[in-house]
Design brief:
Elements lengths: L19 H23 L9 H8 L6 H18 L12 H11 L2 H14 L4 E8 L2 E8 L10 E7 L6 H4 L3 H11 L3 H9 L1
Antiparallel strand pairs: 1-2, 1-3
Helix pairs in contact: 1-3, 2-3, 4-5, 5-7
Bound molecules: manganese (II) ion (MN).
Manganese (II) ion binds next to helix 1.
């Protein structure tokens, strides 16, 4: 049985940028439902014994395991998303190493912010927008639906969920406002740095 990882923060800890109500639905209903579906789909199969990344890798691009892939990757992506969000000042400090990588890769933090937002807006329909390390550079990567960055030979550092369920209660159709609120206030740079050095 796969288990639902606990949120790394309280449900109201991201207010006013993400409401307690959104977290209750997003974590308590959506994330939980992906996990419950996954457990039902792998019950009694050899996949039950694998780690979550192994289930994802072994079911990717396999039409017979599409349901398993979608639910497993959504469980993984949501875990990654919660960890990408910060609730204290310390997590908001960008390390020197990461800061210079951002400047080298995007020109400036302002460019980084603008590109991140534009990419989130250009994701048609549901998906995820990732900051990833690709060789010596940082780049953005969009993935559709449940697709996940580690399948693309890059190292994920941070992710923003741009499925409508992530922001509709708080921002309705204003995806840009949601994404900028996260970039400006909620990105967990400590988590990104840890991923970079792993
Ligand atoms: Mn979501």
């Amino acid at each position: 049985m796969f288990i639902l990882n606990e949120l790394p923060f309280g449900a109201s800890a991201l207010e006013p940028y993400i409401s307690e109500k959104t977290i209750q639905f997003h974590y308590g209903k959506h994330h939980q439902a992906y996990l419950d579906n996954l457990n039902k789909l792998v019950a009694g199969t050899e996949l039950e014994k694998l780690s979550l990344p192994e289930v994802i890798s072994s079911s990717a691009n396999n039409p017979e395991r599409l349901g398993i892939f979608n639910n497993a990757a959504q469980v993984y992506n949501h875990d990654f998303f919660w960890q990408s969000l910060r609730t204290n000042a310390e997590q908001g400090i960008i390390s020197e190493n990461l800061s210079s990588l951002i400047n080298n890769s995007f020109g400036s933090f302002d460019n980084f912010r603008e590109e991140f937002k534009n990419l989130a807006l250009s994701q048609f329909g549901s998906g995820w927008v990732w900051l990833v390390q690709d060789g010596e550079k940082l780049v953005f990567l969009k993935t559709a639906n449940a697709d996940t960055a580690f399948l693309h030979q890059v190292k994920p550092l941070l992710v923003i969920d741009v499925w409508e369920h992530a922001y509709y209660l708080d921002y309705q159709n204003r995806r840009a406002d949601f994404v900028l609120a996260i970039i400006d206030n909620l990105l967990n740079w400590q988590f990104a740095s840890n991923n970079l050095n792993n």
